[in-house]
Amino acid sequence: MFEYAPAPESRSVVQIAPSYGLFIDGLFEEAKSTFKTVNPADEEVLAEVALAGPEDVDRAVAAARRAFETWSALPGSERAKYLFRIARIIQERSRELAVLESLDNGKPIKESRDVDLPLVAAHFFYYAGWADKLAYAGFGSDPKPLGVAGQVIPWNFPLLMLAWKIAPALAAGNTVVLKPAETTPLSALFFADVCRQAGLPPGVVNIVTGAGDTGRYLVEHPDVDKVAFTGSTEVGRQIARSVAGTGKRLTLELGGKAANIVFDDAPIDQAVEGIVNGIFFNQGHVCCAGSRLLVQESIAEELLDSLKRRMATLRVGDPLDKNTDVGAINSAAQLARITELSEIGSSEGAERWSPECSLPDRGFWFAPTIFTGVTQAHRIAREEIFGPVLSVLTFRTPDEAIEKANNTPYGLSAGIWSEKGSRILAVADKLRAGVVWANTFNKFDPTSPFGGYKESGYGREGGRHGLEAYLA
Amino acid sequence: MPKSSAPRLSVRKTFKLYIGGAFPRSESGRTYLVDGDNVALASRKDARDAVVAARKAQPKWAGATAYNRGQVVYRIAEMVESRRAEFKALGTAGDEVNAAVDRLVWYAGWSDKIAQVAGNANPVAGPFFNLSSPEPTGVVGVIAPPTLLGLVSVVAPAVVTGNTVVVVTGGPQVAVTLAEVLATSDVPGGVVNILTGHAAEIAPWLASHDDVNGLDLTGVDDPTLAVELEQAAAGTLKRVRRAGRTDFTNDPGLAPMTAFLETKTVWHPKGF
Amino acid sequence: MTATVMSDLRSLLHGLPGVDKVGVEARAAALATRSVKTTAKAQAIDLAIRMVDLTTLEGADTPGKVRALSAKALRPDPADPTCPPVAAICVYPAMVPVAFEVLKGSGVHLASVATAFPSGQAPLDVKLADTRDAVAGGADEIDMVISRGAFLAGDYTKVFDEIVAVKEACGSAHLKVILETGELGTYDNVRRASWLAMLAGADFIKTSTGKVPVAATLPVTLVMLEAVRDFRARAGRQIGVKPAGGIRTTKDAMKYLVLINETVGDDWLSPDWFRFGASSLLNDLLMQRTKLTTGHYAGPDYFTLD
User: Fold this and answer.
1) Sign of the CA dihedral C180, C277, C36, A15?
2) CATH number of the domain at C3-298, out of 3.20.20.70, 2.60.120.620, 3.40.50.720, 3.40.50.2020?
């Protein structure tokens, strides 16, 4: 194999300040109490970030409440133009934001550049277009915004999750207080600057950084009308409990343990790509990752050979290298969890395999891994690992595949690989999952609703359906 | 070179047609005088050429992603905004320029939403997947009103959904300036073709043209002509939109788009 | 061929796994974003030069033109002795003796298109005579075209038998089988035609004649690389791949090398197993090569036009 020489994306396209305060009412405040955010690829501190306490969250919610009066009263066409401006600024600054995202998150620049940032801009464009068309969205002739939205997002797609939350909220006339994840706060703070550049009125978007407690203050704040959360099922459950009885509207986008079902008539080479993309995209830090491969027994051996051969070409390493396929695990804590569950997989008798790959000395890394000989009883077939670890199971008939696929408390996504259209549609009908991909995987589009069945949460983000969560 | 004391002589613009992304004179060599400017006077053969250009551009334009078409229409809005002084110099009021820009922004947003509003899944009684979605009609002849807002309000809805258009307008300078906007807005050549001249002369050729799929009569003031055009259009069962007198400042609704959309329904069995 | 063998051939070809168009194009596009820089690029450029089948297939070809091209094949950059020669010259049969005079003993191969190139619409005996003439004139590689008409009509036996016959007529010359993928319509057909050619004895499978609007593309080449990979795994014989037509820039060539690198790997990263059928590509490779050594951009006036 010929080795590509290092092709690092320039870090100098982004200027990270030593410290960042909260963004409230259109202003960056002075940071008082802070925490550090690190680059997971080398554990270097990128910046210090303010840790928001209850009174900070109070001020942010109050600012959002004040801004709501005027923002919600603006004609939709004016709100649309603000969102279009934001979309355009993101397009123009996408290289800078992509590098920032890779630095703070550890994802390969190829993905932040070609997936995250284009989708972020597209999401704002899409919902910008809805702002002056709400009466056509199918939620009544004169739908109204809810008020202040408290939004808490995860670390796996920091800016994209922000876009999924903020774009529909603003288009519908709500104002927001958003808390980015503790380990990836920077792109949300840069987004605050994008809002400023766009001339967005103060208080419409407020960013409060912090950890779990900050998120809790926000979702439990009495003056928040709507809570939107993306993250783990466990935290989602707590939020649903705390919101119960308050009358707040709630949408949750939680964990998953998606089945990726490969039938014996699948387009094999593309199925292998889909399996790889399904579980190794974004280091497997994807709630809809295809973490359970269900392969028809008659082709299992052949398919696994192809899969292993393909995995051997994955390039793991420096997220800023343009040729990197798999980057760094986002945090030490996540790495520990992936490591632990993988060890459990081995101890429960599944066979573990990884391609040869040298991992950097510093930072958080985990080689792409598959487990074969996995059964439904194994913990690695039931629990969300949220890392580059694939469990392989087999099935004999479509009914068995469906049964196994649905045999989980989760229900976020699923994949089907077959050249037979009627089979795909019949299987899709029976899968209890919010998104079903056929002969593709991990595809996202602002026009397409995303969200789960069962313990993967409720509510949909994206598409016309995504407006419903922000309208009364 | 010694500096002349004489006042500087301005360079005037030549007002030409807009066909296939280029600015040709009328093949007839004719012009007519509008506010002191010689403006190209389109002929039936110009209309014929414009239909060829529109037909050639249509598959690729319809095949572009809705997102891409929306971006292009939004870019038109940006460019109209940046040329507001030019439109004002032609007598278009500031408010009307604003409304035209906002109208373009409104349609830019429709590109990837019209299918979600005008299409749907159908719960047929049987083991079938059944989905209806809108598709563009094809090439649309547009007899446009003479004002900027009127022009934008008939052209944008037809093209944002994937049709290509041949526009006939009696508001020549505004239309030519809009053509210059389009030529610098990432709009592929041939998607919008603009003919300046007389509807009474050109429109019948578009109405009877076998390779035109739709006809928008919004800009036809003469009721007799409108009836004749509708009758001519019946020859190939063109989709005809006869909006009549329109207040372009109102919410346009969906009709300007759906008038030139077909609905395609796909059936597919479901079974192992 | 007997009826059973015929139906075996059909069921074998139609039993190959399908190719999902969207998926294969996405994979090719993703690989096309690989960044090949500095030392890797220098290495890759020299490899690409060594893989070029420098081609002229025009009605206006003359002995003078072919001699000049052959001279260029031996020393692509007269100003730089470190620049390697190309893999082969590719000409019409009538021009084979001319090229042979220049190339003999040089190690640069002499390829000739044959079998009523480019349409393939001639009787078999004409095609075989065409092939024998080229070999007799000194060609050690034959680029034949398949009968796309027969393939599309489902007459796989006819295509198979023709390839077998031409292979025999080739003697010791290597046989490259041109599938003309731009006329096959689907990736499924590309995969089937690849297998058909390999089963019939092709040493190389080649995308295109360069004479129809759609020539080599990355996804088509990807499908063919997958086919030679799978064929070796099953039949134990390694087959070469030659994309031809439409590859004009160094950037294009790099994408193909990346495709080999990440689909079939090392074993195919050699002029023995991969070729570029091209003409203008060579000068762009030379220009990029010079840019890497001098540090500034090169201009076309500084490279020979042949």
Assistant:
1) negative
2) 3.20.20.70
Average pLDDT of span A123-138: 98
Q: How confident is the model at residue A1 (pLDDT cuts 50, 70, 90)?
A: low
Question: Tell me, which fold does domain B31-269 have in CATH?
Answer: Aldehyde Dehydrogenase; Chain A, domain 1 (3.40.605)
The whole-number pLDDT of residue B1 equals: 59
At residue B240, φ and ψ (nearest 5 deg) are -110, 130
Q: Find, among A170, A126, A115, the residue nearest to A464 by Cα.
A: A126
Domain ranges of chain C: 3-298
Q: Would you say residue A81 lies in a domain?
A: yes
Q: Which residue has the tokens 């012009």?
A: B31
Whole-number Å distance between alpha carbons of C204 and C241 = 5
Please report residues of A whose CB lies closer than 8 A to that of C38. 5
The beta-carbon neighbor of A429 closest among B67, B74, B270 is B270
- In this structure, the number of other CB atoms found within 10 A of the CB of residue C199 comes to 17
Contact of B169 with B141, CB cutoff 8 Å: no
The whole-angstrom separation of Cα B28 and Cα B42 is 7
A266 touches chain C (CB under 8 A): yes
Q: Please provide residue C243's backbone torsions phi and psi, each rounded to the nearest 5 degrees.
A: -75, 140
Q: How many CA atoms lie within 13 A of C105 on its CB side?
A: 2
Residue type, A354: S
Q: Which helix (H) or strand (E) holds B128?
A: strand B128-136
A355 lies in the same domain as A405: yes
- In whole angstroms, what is the distance from residue A469 CA to residue A219 CA? 15
Give the model confidence (pLDDT) of C125-147 as tens digits: 999 999 999 999 999 999 999 99
**Interface contact B112-A129, CB threshold 8 A:** yes
In this structure, the answer to whether residues A429 and A322 fall within a common structural domain is: yes
Q: In this predicted model, what pLDDT tens digit does every residue of C48-85 receive, in sequence order?
A: 999 999 999 999 999 999 999 999 999 999 999 999 99
pTM for this model (two decimals) = 0.96
CATH code at position A338: 3.40.309.10
Q: What is the spatial distance between Cα B272 and Cα B249, in angstroms, rounded to a whole number?
A: 54
Q: For chain B, list the contacting chains (3+ Cβ pairs, <8 Å).
A: A
Give the span between the Cα atoms of B203 and B13, in whole angstroms.
26
Is A101 a catalytic site residue?
Answer: no
